[in-house]
Amino acid sequence: MRILVINPNTTASMTALIEGCARAAVSPGVTVDAVNPPSGPVSIESHFDEAIAIPHLLETVRAGAEAGYDAFVIACFGDPGLLAAREITEAPVVGIAEAAMRTATYLARGFSVVTTLSRVIGHTWDLAHEYGVAGRCAGIHACEIPVIELETDPLARATITEACRSALESDGSEAVVLGCAGMADLCAHISAELGVPVVDGVAAATAEAEKLVRLGLATSKRNEFATPPVKAFV
Ligand code: 5HY
Asked: Among 15, 93, 208, 227, who pairs with 36 as Cys (CB 3.0-4.6 Å)?
């Protein structure tokens, strides 16, 4: 089984981190490759960034399907292009926000999300509603560290840990979802520190992709996710 994990931003060091966390989440014998586009935003933290990143992401899914990958993970917490990607391949496509929030519902009555900037909170609520888990999401909070500074800010881990602690208290929640692929390596530390489950979407989505392939399940091609109608693009 081969799973392609796509980081839709262009920061190669973040792709390497994502690849390590994704590989750690799958069973022996499952191959996980992570890629990022050659051009586009170095981080995705606005609707504009998402719009610029999506065309290359879809090209990568199309090429990956032709290359025989069995499943795809979109490793960006806004789940950009997720529904369009499902239309162009039968192989399962899993978004990290979707997988992380759904996973948290198995573990706790209420979960909090801690993401990067407050400007993405509205979009994250939209996703929670779209996935049907908004009733289990007790709050969405920002640590106010830009995505690209997660790697360089020496206080990032401590700041995010404190944001998680304060989210648990203010929301009365019992688990935390980390709202950025660049936070994937912080999961174990924060969970040990706070004593609650902390869900990283990269691991959750990659494990979910493996599960779907193992169960022989593919995206339904009936109605919404059917291959888009063939037409001229002018
Ligand atoms: C992510 N952006 O997971 C999102 C996080 C965010 O470049 N990778 C990004 O802030 O929405």
From this structure: 15
